[in-house]
Amino acid sequence: MKRDNDLIRSLLLEIEAAEDAIFLCVLTDGSTDDERRSYYHLKLLVDAGMLEETGRFGGSFRMTNYGHDFIEAIRSESIWRDVKSVVATVGGATLGIMSDIAKTYISAEVNKHLGIGS
């Protein structure tokens, strides 16, 4: 299965917006393809250090500080579009590099707002 960065962003935004700090996603025999796809991407986020799987039996996730930093960097739709455009130009990138690209855009906006480097 290919990683879907838009789904990753969507999942992180959903987890952040939840009232509970623990996000549940448990697969069963009756799970849909979309549920299986989401679970796979949650596990990728665990691999990347953006989520931590908690509980004895799995399926319980909490966002790490790195996950919060990543979602802050890519929260803006325009920055997200710009990041995806850069990534498409170079043929792909890791989530960490995507975060770095987003932070570069944010830094440029902050500098422009402060009148630095004009």
Task: Explain what the structure shows.
- There is one protein chain.
- With 118 residues, the chain is mainly alpha-helical.
- The chain has helices at residues 5-17, 33-47, 65-74, 77-90, 95-114; strands at residues 23-24, 51-54, 60-63.
- Helices cover 61% and strands 8% of the residues.
- The protein contains five helices and three strands; from the N terminus they run H-E-H-E-E-H-H-H.
- Strand 2 (51-54) and strand 3 form a beta hairpin.
Topology:
Blueprint: H1 5-17, E1 23-24, H2 33-47, E2 51-54, E3 60-63, H3 65-74, H4 77-90, H5 95-114
Antiparallel strand pairs: 1-3, 2-3
Helix pairs in contact: 1-3, 3-5, 4-5
Q: Which terms summarize this structure?
A:
118 residues; mainly alpha; three-stranded antiparallel β-sheet; 5 helices; 61% helix; elongated
Outline:
The chain has 118 residues and is mostly helical. Helix content is 61%, strand content 8%. The N and C termini lie far apart (44 Å).
- Envelope shape: elongated
Beta content: 5-15%
Number of helices: 5
Q: Structural class per helix/strand content? A: mainly alpha
The amount of helix comes to: 55-70%
